[in-house]
Amino acid sequence: MYLERIKAPSDVRALPASALPALCEEIRHAVIESSAAVGGHMGSNLAVVELTVAIHRVFETPRDKVVFDVSHQTYPHKMLTGRARAFLDPAHYEDVSGFSNPRESEHDLFAMGHTSTSASLACGLATARDLAGEKYDVVAVIGDGSLSGGLAFEGLDNAAALGSGIIVVINDNEWSIAPNHGGIYRNLAELRATRGAAAHNVFRALGFDYRYLGEGHDVSAVEAALSELRGCDHPVVLHVHTQKGRGYAPAVADPESWHHAVPFDVATGAPAVPGASEDYARITGAYLAERMACDQRLVAVSAATPYIMGFTPEMRERAGSRFVDVGIAEEHAVTYVTGLARGGARPVLGVYATFLQRAYDELWHDLCLNAVPAVLLVFGASAFGTTDATHLGFFDIPMLGAMPGLPYLAPTCREEYLDMLSWALEQEDGPVAIRVPVASVESRPGFERPAAGYARGWEVVRRGCDVALLALGDLLPLGEKVADALAERGVRATVVNPRLATTADEDLLGRLSADHRLMVTLEDGVLEGGFGERVARALACENVRVRCYGLPRAFEDRYEPKVLLGRCGMTVEGVTADVLGLLRA
Amino acid sequence: MYLERIKAPSDVRALPASALPALCEEIRHAVIESSAAVGGHMGSNLAVVELTVAIHRVFETPRDKVVFDVSHQTYPHKMLTGRARAFLDPAHYEDVSGFSNPRESEHDLFAMGHTSTSASLACGLATARDLAGEKYDVVAVIGDGSLSGGLAFEGLDNAAALGSGIIVVINDNEWSIAPNHGGIYRNLAELRATRGAAAHNVFRALGFDYRYLGEGHDVSAVEAALSELRGCDHPVVLHVHTQKGRGYAPAVADPESWHHAVPFDVATGAPAVPGASEDYARITGAYLAERMACDQRLVAVSAATPYIMGFTPEMRERAGSRFVDVGIAEEHAVTYVTGLARGGARPVLGVYATFLQRAYDELWHDLCLNAVPAVLLVFGASAFGTTDATHLGFFDIPMLGAMPGLPYLAPTCREEYLDMLSWALEQEDGPVAIRVPVASVESRPGFERPAAGYARGWEVVRRGCDVALLALGDLLPLGEKVADALAERGVRATVVNPRLATTADEDLLGRLSADHRLMVTLEDGVLEGGFGERVARALACENVRVRCYGLPRAFEDRYEPKVLLGRCGMTVEGVTADVLGLLRA
Q1: Region A459-584: CATH code
Q2: What is the pLDDT of residues A437-485, one digit of tens each?
Q3: Which of A436, A575, B305, B577 has the smallest set of CB atoms within 10 Å of its CB?
Q4: What's the gap in Å between the CA of A64 and the closest CA on chain B?
Q5: Which CATH class is domain A3-253?
Q6: Which ipTM score applies to this complex?
Q7: The whole model's pTM is what?
């Protein structure tokens, strides 16, 4: 076996060319086996096996600088840069992260996990190189799916203007997470069909030199094509055609489902553990699809992640033009939704909290400034969401907390979520964002909409005195359990479902401060700029203490949610003990 | 005179073609005279006179939908849609805003002032139209300068994919705010040189139909070209060549200086009031230019606003490759700076707070996650910055407040600013952001750097007891004046310069709470997610009250800074009275 003897890229360069196909098969096998065991980005990694081997044959990292866009396709790169064991030995499958990480290796230049950054990063590296008068190659490897992101355009546009030596490898596997959407994909298709000779060429139009290689899985051909670019003194694009899922039939047959795999059986492709029968994706999709039948203005919008809204390919097909996937383009998605609402449609945009960060200005300057009725479903906004440092979802409350006129609703159960969504679609006052629950699906029979709707006003779930537990969204069960534990100690706590993550109910807080000495805020978001600080300020001149629980302003990485919450004191025992101590003080 | 008889676009359409050149001259004259009196975006408005007249001849707003990108070029549009008096009668020059505003007119579809949104908004309008089964034209008018923004690419890319009738008018005056930067501008130049026939065409490559018109100031030619697109059922670009500053010689000769004019003398072009002899732009530029001589790694970066860093065209020329203007591309700027720093350079990025919003995710995911030493100079971050709702700079603290590992320094005077900048450039721990003062340039002789640097720790400026005034950045003088007023009433107040806008100095707060019953926070930023809330939370379990002064979470528009601060209680008298009241309570 070649792979286990490769300790550094120099070992790849030392191999005879004849050994490379076998090495590639070993890498492919390791991707499949390790992903089957612990899950992973199957499709993209299987597509870049030969490309990655060729890159490490031609360029000499870390002296040469290679930046993999998004970096979810760096498993082969990791295997060739001293980290093969993490893909070969089941006992070490969790040793390395799924993304580029400078703490793991000097061959990883940046920590990253969002798309479309590689051209800009490469521009920076190239300028720094030129200013220092050094000579080495700077290479950005970017997938076709990432090209719809505006940042990628800004980076390519600037690379062309800088005019310096930057090699951009377009790894074109014809897929984003889901199918690609955007005019540029027609051009990529033309270029593939003509082997790069099409009359229209967006890269040449921007000023790039351009080469095409159709044989992205012929490792010698890729090596030869890259070799020609070694030491290139101007911006050049090498457009390489690859196949998503290459070498694993189920992944080739269904690239969307296999973009990221949960643990599965290699022989059949079946998931190792059956999925939850009910989750908020499915609840959302079912609700919206049904509502579309009676509300002709409803449009569902996604930025390349239709599955988070529960829209399967079949449901998208049925929805027709009522479901719009704009591709990886969160900024456009928010501004597009603003235009849709102004034009009289009623849009619902579903997006991961971590990716919504891309559209901060569009939220402020387009959606909120224009105060149009549009609904934003924020997914994964929780400590219980994605746990990689690159994809943390628990910065959402500070992100949305200062947006003028944007109520940010935090439902606590299925019924409350659907009623908030229904209310948000009916009201005409302006945009409404909903923090879709992430933890298990809770249910509250007999749930009723508050008379005043959801724009203001918190809900008192249980009325006590002395201490009030304000437990946001997914943490309401924690608040209730703490109240139960306190009751056993003779303290009758008030429990509040705040419903609004970024707005203090000052009336209620005023009333509660009459017979409460302590308020406790519980949120699974960062403390800085969070829900608790809003409460602390509202009560800062009152004769009541406020204890805020929340998460640190830090890039927690691959954490266990319960452990993180525990570290922050958010356990039933921890909060109960703190409350008893503070009430005694 | 034609202009004063035009009450609605139908009056424009009723004019004989022979009257149009005279109408255009009247509009141009009104732009110049009104801008001379109250300031304004001269260059862009003079460029679009004929284009705007032709648009209102061909399309019937508000039934047809026309979106002007950025909307700083809408003075002619306003004149033709019932608002001519605001440009003709000096007594009414301030009646309308400088940007598109639905509250002013049904012909203004959106409030806006940031660039590159028009294609996305037009996509939304077009989809809404198609879903409703209606027929009207949707037109986006976008300047060449706005095309470097990634959002514009996302919108154009999606427009091409939607395939519906969307007319994109590229108003190519060959200028951004400053000169354009980006590969796309080479393509625009090729297209101009060949009257649209160049082999490379980025718009056609994306899938647009494409037309070129070189005679952007021949109103009949523009009308004819637009007429051909009426009712177009697919995405089409009309590329119109115009001249920035057309009709006013000084503005043609120096488009950068005349992008936005302060009040001036029409005959000579000289400013009506001499500019301040010292401001933070000049202080910044002088410092960086001098430091470049001895620090070979220093690179200054701008996203199309080099003047805010005090870099005149001559200084940029001298700095050579050490000054990089990336064009309107804030996202790229932040990610580029991350790459620069990783590559060993020492970048300083200067950007307006309101435009930095575009790069929220890049700040989080690229700069902060990678913790590289780069310096961010945030300009206009204050109630004393730009006062249009579209450009508010006082949302900066919530924007940066949850970024992990990003100290956000708030200097209070010239010496402190320069020392913080120097310290930020020397340290290697990670990125540092500085909230550049906006109010008048204060000076503190004998200023000394704190022994521990600036990463943590606030400064006690004056030690008293009972009440501590924590007065951030530009508001330190207010804090000192309140302390003086309190001293006259027998209260010896403590005054603190917090230095850090997003981090509480918990040690100091702990010490102060021993002999202070009241803390007052003063910030010229929004309260939600702001500095005061951090203090309120830090002290929420202590036996001390906290009174937070700050600005509302609202789109204040064309406000008078002192009036706004007064409304929020931030006057010497107001704060003094409140403090006395709270100390008595």
Answers
A1: 3.40.50.920
A2: 998 899 999 999 999 999 989 999 999 999 999 999 999 999 999 999 9
A3: B577
A4: 11
A5: alpha beta
A6: 0.98
A7: 0.98
